[in-house]
Amino acid sequence: MKRVHIIATGGTIASKAAAAGGAALPTLSAQDLVTAVPELRDVAEVSFEQFANVASQALTLDQLVGLARRVNQVFARREADGVVITQGTMTMEESSYLWDMMLERAGAVIVTGAMRHSSLPSPDGPRNLLDAVIAAVSPAIRTLGVLVCMNGELHAARDVVKFHSLSVESFRSPEVGPVGFVRSGRVDLRRTPLDDHRPISVERISASVALVPIVAGDDGRLIAAAAQMADGLVLQLMGGGAVPPPCVPVIAKAIEHTPVIGVTRCAAGSMYENVYAFEGGDKQLRELGVIFAGSLTGLKARLKLMLYLSAHPCPAPGSTEMRAWRRDLAAAFPNI
After folding, report:
1. Has 12 been annotated as catalytic?
2. pLDDT tens digits for the chain (336 residues)?
3. Measured between alpha carbons, how far is 221 from 247 in angstroms, rounded to an integer?
4. One of 12, 86, 112, 258 is an active-site residue; which one?
5. Where are the domains of the chain?
6. What whole-number distance in Å separates Cα of residue 301 and Cα of residue 243?
């Protein structure tokens, strides 16, 4: 029988209310989660550990990096064939992508949680945990990277977003749909995720990156302030890549000393490729040096730039190394 190691960090799946109708807190342990789903023993030999027990908005970047190291350790020591991480859903689309960027693909890694805590009628945590363990032992997904398993669906970490704040159908991949499903005790794989995996290894995330939305009537003042405070910028651009004209000189000045990544602020879709030549259009932004990040969301592009800058700090502005460094950075953000 295959072995699955569960790493619990808290979240709604570990939460219950102290009194009927009261507010919930993450108080259930990893052992509590496993004990509540006896069917797990028919799927795999399960081990578990308590990494943290907090709501996911409280998980720090240091903790997320530390958990990635722990997963690598599990596979290096051959402690398990697959790993399931339980966490809160508020930051699941971010943490799962961070782990996907950091981990070697040595085994299946499944992230799951719950939208309804254990004190509510029909909590979804037990079903999601069982589905995640079923996925973790499936040979079909061993090398597909980190997957999010929620509501019977499997989503690639690169693509998944939390689409709804309350529904059990909260997680979607708007651009491409799920990788597959967990049905009748097995994985039904429907597609292979886009593979642009280039592991980035860091001891800690030392770089800061600001995520700035571009809005109607924007004069660029927020961009200018963020460029002074952060090591990098991710701009959520209008449509497939546009900004109001007053933002253009501000972005041009920021690019002199700060890497700038452009993503769409839309819920789905990718970036333009020299479609519009008007002032503030995608053609001008590319010529200024904005790196377009394809279909990555702003949340994920921010994490990727933070990782990249932590591993490859930006050379001094105007230095001979800067041009080659910018080429390497652009290659790390393919426009796909």
Report:
1. yes
2. 999 999 999 999 999 998 877 899 999 999 999 999 999 999 999 999 999 999 999 999 999 999 999 999 999 999 999 999 999 999 999 999 999 999 988 999 999 999 999 999 999 999 999 999 999 999 999 889 999 999 999 999 999 999 999 999 999 999 999 999 999 999 999 998 876 677 898 999 999 999 999 999 999 999 999 999 999 999 999 999 999 999 999 999 999 999 999 999 999 999 999 899 999 999 999 999 999 999 999 999 999 999 999 999 999 888 888 889 999 999 999 888
3. 8
4. 12
5. 3-189, 209-332
6. 18
Angstrom distance (rounded) from CA 148 to CA 157: 6
Strand bridging mode 186-189 / 3-10 = unpaired
CATH level 3 topology of 209-332? Rossmann fold (3.40.50)
Take residue 109 and report the two structure tokens written for it. Answer: 């890694």
Output phi, psi for 197, to 5 deg.
-70, 120
Copy the structure tokens of residue 85: 């991480």
DSSP 50-71: EEEEE-GGG--HHHHHHHHHHH
3-class SS of residue 64: helix
Neighbours of 327 (CB within 10 A): 9
Do the Cβ atoms of 247 and 218 come closer than 8 Å? yes
Beta bridge partners of 50: 8
Residue 244 burial (10 A CB sphere; 0-12, 13-18, 19+): middle
The whole-angstrom separation of Cα 197 and Cα 129 is 26
> Beta-carbon neighbour count of residue 47 at 10 Å?
15
The Cβ of residue 59 has, within 10 Å, a number of other Cβ atoms equal to 22
Extended beta strands in 73-113, E state: 82-86, 108-112
Distance CA 312, CA 331 (A): 13
Topology agreement, domain 3-189 and domain 209-332: yes
Pick the CATH number of 3-189 from 1.10.10.10, 3.40.50.1170, 3.40.50.300, 3.40.630.30: 3.40.50.1170
Q: What residues have CB less than 8 Å from 72, skipping those under 6 apart?
A: 103, 104, 106
Q: What residues contact residue 249 under an 8 Å CB cut-off, 6+ apart?
A: 220
